[in-house]
Design brief:
single chain; Umud Fragment, subunit A; nine-stranded mixed sheet; 255 residues; alpha+beta; 434 Repressor (Amino-terminal Domain); rod-shaped
């Protein structure tokens, strides 16, 4: 039954037959709309709403204000559902039942494929390490608070990067991340440093003459700095940027 549809007709002082004729339908059909024996099609609701400047929600008794749309899209979906035949309604009901069952089911656990990180096993003596492809490594669970986008990590052994990377801590590294001046990175230096260890965790900068400085963060370990001049035959390669630090490393100031 549509009480508001009947009220609208009566407000226009029209009989059922006159109102039905105005919209090109038989009186018996329209009478069925008012008493709820028939379901109007979407075109009828729209035509009445447009002619009398009321909302379809009002005509369908969803609200008492003729200019208010209480349910919006929901009322339009109800209308479309009402226009389906029995087969169409069964199909829609099956889909709704399946979706409601899916939503009521316990959530499927999300598998985190980034829950581990590659840990290179070569110790980092005095801030050195060797995270080179082919070196021994193990996949370890990613600790809480560690950067999830790290490509690998290494254990720092030594004090050259304290207090930012203390002895025994893990340095997390992102390959290909752009380095800004004084950012920490992991660098390969080839050309014979005499120690047999050629990979270093250092801050970096380059002066106007092209001289590369790989610097210790520890103000007491200036002796561990590496200076490579532009005309040097040594090879330098950056494995990546150290990420996940609590704060940005400032330029080092040595005592």
């Amino acid at each position: 039954m549509s009480n508001n549809l009947k009220a609208l007709r009566e407000s226009q002082k029209m009989k059922q037959g006159d109102f039905a004729a105005a919209f090109g339908i038989p009186q018996t059909t329209y009478s069925g709309y008012e008493i709820g024996a028939r379901e109007p099609k979407t075109d009828f609701w729209k035509a009445v709403a447009d002619r009398y400047h009321v909302t379809i929600d009002y005509l369908m008794d969803f609200c008492d204000d003729p200019h208010q749309a209480k349910y919006g899209d929901r009322s339009r979906l109800d209308q479309r559902y009402g226009n389906l035949d029995d087969h169409g309604k069964r199909v829609v009901d099956l889909v709704l039942d399946a979706e409601l069952e899916r939503m009521a089911a316990p959530p499927v656990p999300v598998v985190d494929f980034h829950a581990t990180v590659r840990h290179y096993l070569v110790p980092a003596a005095a801030g050195y390490a060797a995270p080179i492809e082919g070196e021994d490594y193990e996949d370890i669970p990613l600790p809480d608070g560690a950067p999830a986008d790290a490509d690998f990590c290494i254990t720092v052994a030594g004090d050259s990067m304290e207090p930012y990377l203390p002895d025994g801590s893990l340095a997390y590294v992102k390959r290909g991340a752009p380095l800004q001046e004084f950012d920490p990175g992991v660098f390969f230096v080839g050309g014979g440093r005499g120690s047999g260890i050629d990979v270093f965790i250092k801050q970096w900068c380059v002066d106007s003459e092209g001289t590369l400085y790989l610097l210790s963060a520890n103000p007491d370990r200036e002796d561990k700095n590496i200076v490579i001049r532009a005309d040097s035959s040594e090879t330098v390669f950056c494995f990546g940027k150290v990420i996940g630090l609590k704060k940005k490393m400032p330029p080092p100031e040595y005592r």
